[in-house]
Model the fold of this input.
Amino acid sequence: MDDNNSDLGIKEKVMNQLRGVIDPELGSDIVDLGMVKEVDFRDSGELQITIALTTAGCPLKAQIQKDIRGRMKSISEVKHVKVNWTELSDEERAQTMDRARFNLSKEDVVTQIPPTTKSIMIASGKGGVGKSSVTANIATGLAARGLTVGVLDADIWGFSIPQMLGVEGRLAGNEETKRIVPLVKNIGSGTLKIISMGFLVDENKSSLNWRGLILNRAVRHFLEDVEWGEMDYLIIDMPPGTGDVQMGLAKMLPRSDMIVVTTPSKTVQTVATRVASMAQSYYLRIAGVVENMSAFINEDGKEYNIFGSGGGEELAQELGVPLLGSIPIDPFVSNGSDTGVPVILGDGHAARALNSIVDEVISAVPRINPLDCTAHGSLETSVSITNS
Ligand code: ADP
Done:
């Protein structure tokens, strides 16, 4: 056993060692986070440490315990360690989370997103409004125009991008660079480079226990450790609402634009404004609003406003940004998601609306260095799909 700090009191040595124990979820050490509640050392060599967790059922308890025990081995006076667990009070938990967020905000993130890539976050106030469908279709539409498009599925609780784009597989690393390689799908002469939690876990439920900050770290890996390579656009499917992942992304990609997806309904419009104000507080630019699930158009061209009308236009006006388009309710949208062939590649009301939205996106969020496009070929409209 190695004990270099014999001049220090035992408690101090214990605290110094505990400073090396990182809460895997919060990313800071447990002393800094105020989680070490008591250190009791007896001359017999008995050490009792009381740790307060953010929740009693914290799945990372075993890891913290193992780390503590391992570290105490370096203190020769300690013969036996007992770790007691307790829970932070609501007030303490709020302070701990603030501290963890503050520490995270100080860390520099060097993303692998090339400076010539325009990133666009597709956001919504709540789930189920068609945000992922809009992401999959906009990305596919951009690729169908001959562009190279990254798709980051940051909707980690409810990832659906692999299914919607018809891409299956497991993420693998590049032996040389030690970076994760995105899965690739070619659309005509364009390319999609896709990263999703769905390529790492077996089922959706595997990630359900994860909470905000650890998800934020997972998403951060997707920006820092993925070999994205050159891309014209990076389209990000954000989790619905405003939470740690959304704020983390906003901080990590400060030059990003955001497109807010809403439905014609007033309630959805109200929650969408919250996402927009989060974006604005991080100085992200809101490029426009997309209204999804607008009127259903029957075979005779008659429109039925099933979810009301006007929500998209009102939100756009409220935010002072353009309405990039409205996508009707169209069974082909969900068929496309189920079969992995996004509706934008077909025909019909929704496909036309989405193609027009893609054109609007290109003019609202122009590519960086648009003149330097020889490598991308001309913009194509007719496409064939191959997986690789
Ligand atoms: P979110 O990402 O906002 O949770 P999804 O894109 O997963 O929403 O869409 C929710 C469901 O609604 C999916 O089954 C999808 O296929 C369907 N859907 C989305 N947009 C439309 C539309 N315009 N017409 C018909 N179904 C749609």
Q: What stands out?
A: The CA atoms of residues 250 and 281 lie 10 Å apart.
